[in-house]
Every structure is written in C-alpha cells, then in structure tokens.
Amino acid sequence: PEALYPSTWVGERACAWLRTHASPDRPFFLKVSFPDPHHPFTPPGRFWDLYRPQDVQLPPSFHQPGDSRLVQDVHRYTREGGSREGYGAYGVSERECQETIALTYGMISLIDEQVGRLTATLQSLDRARDTVVIFTSDHGDMMGEHGMVLKGAMHFEGLTRVPFIWSDPALGRGGRAIDLPCGTLDIAQTVLARCGLAPFNGMQGVNLMPWLTNQATPAPDRAGVIVESEPVVLPHGRTRPYRLRSLVSDRWRLTVSN
Q1: 5/240: higher pLDDT
Q2: In this predicted structure, what is the pLDDT of residue 218?
Q3: Cα–Cα distances in Å, from 243 out to 72, 76, 217, 231?
Q4: Which residues, listed in sequence order, are joined to residue 226 by a DSSP beta bridge?
Q5: If residue 244 lies in a helix (H) or strand (E), which one and from where to where?
Q6: What's the rounded Cα separation, in Å, for the pair 94 and 144?
Q7: Which of 48, 15, 12 is closest to 30 using CA atoms?
C-alpha cells in the first residue's frame, strides 16, 4: 500500500518536522532523503502500473554494447547466470528494460508527489517565500544504456549526470540553466555561501552562487569535474582491483581505467 511505502513515510515525517520546527523566527536546515528510485523495482499501489512498458522507448545505445571491457564483463556475467540480487549492473532484454524503466517512472512520480506535499507544507506555514529548496541525487542508474541496468564503476551519463535544481525565492521567477560543469563537491560550498558563511580552509568545490545569480564575470576557468571510482567489491568475476578516473566537461568525457 502507498501509505506503508518508504517514500511516503519519508514525506510524512518531513512535513511533520516542518510543522514542528519551521517557525518564522528561526532558520532551519532539513535534509530529506528518499531511498527511491531504486531496485527492487516495486512502486506501490497506483504507481505500479502508472506507466505502460510498451510505451517506453529504449535508449539509443541499448543495442550498442561497444568495446568497453567493463560492459563486456557485465554481459558475459549475465549470460553465465550471474546473480541479480545485488546492486551491480546486469544485462537485460528489451522487455525487461521497458518494464524496469516504467516501474522506475512510477517510483519517481511518487517522489514528485511527496515533494509537492513538502512545498505545500512550506506554503501553509508561510515559509515558502524565504526557503531555498535544493533537489539532487547521489548518482543515477543505467536504464538500458548499452543493454544494462543498475550501476557500477562505469562513468556513463546515466550514472554521473544527475538532477540539480536550486529553487530560491531571492532569484525571482523564471528558470535558467548553468552551462558550468558542476559536481556534488560544489553543493556544500554553495549552501554555505547562500547562508553567508565562509567555507573552512582547504574545502574543495566551487561556490555556484555567482552563476546562480547571473553575476559571474568573466567566464569560469574550469576544465570540468573529476569523477573517481575504486570498487572495493570486485564485480563480474574480476580478480584484481581497478580504478577509473574521468574528466567531464560541458562537451566531453575522458576516462582512464587501470
């Protein structure tokens, strides 16, 4: 039932916290962390069949496994009957991929509904006009890219390109997109700057506020962001540790694996 599902519970507890602590005379910081969208792909109630698998389009790369050894390892592991019980990537058929995406859309729609409850609660408390809302994620999932689902130490866009929405009443209405390559390391710097607090000495990341407020001149000198992976658990039959380093710019990704 929807009422017993984790995303619903997180939304309920967050709204209850706001009603208790978001008083007009004191600042607050609330992190709301939804476990979904995540496997197993089991959205509850009406969200289970909200989207039809037959309507889902496969990603352009579904039939393009490429020559990456990492991808080849995943498909070999799947063909040999490897387990699907963990979080590691595995190969899927067209129908499996469509069902996975449709069910993931259902989980996302439930989260959208809970975020709507949170914003409605802020409005009812008269705090929406002075509250910054940030929406992001720790990582993505492959939804059929190169014939795979879930995740692993592979720096494809399906895993590394995540939403980052900054809703700030001080910026007025109307949205804009930042072309600057950004990463999760930038979030703490930006939050502190928005609160008028200095970062601690040596803190990594970039304060994005000048770009959010359209006051950044000249153009930033940033080649891109670094994505790093060093798997602790060796996946898909690998016998020795390996690591990946990627430089991601606004146009390209350069990945070195050793």
Answers
A1: 5
A2: 56
A3: 17, 20, 36, 7
A4: 247
A5: strand 244-248
A6: 8
A7: 15
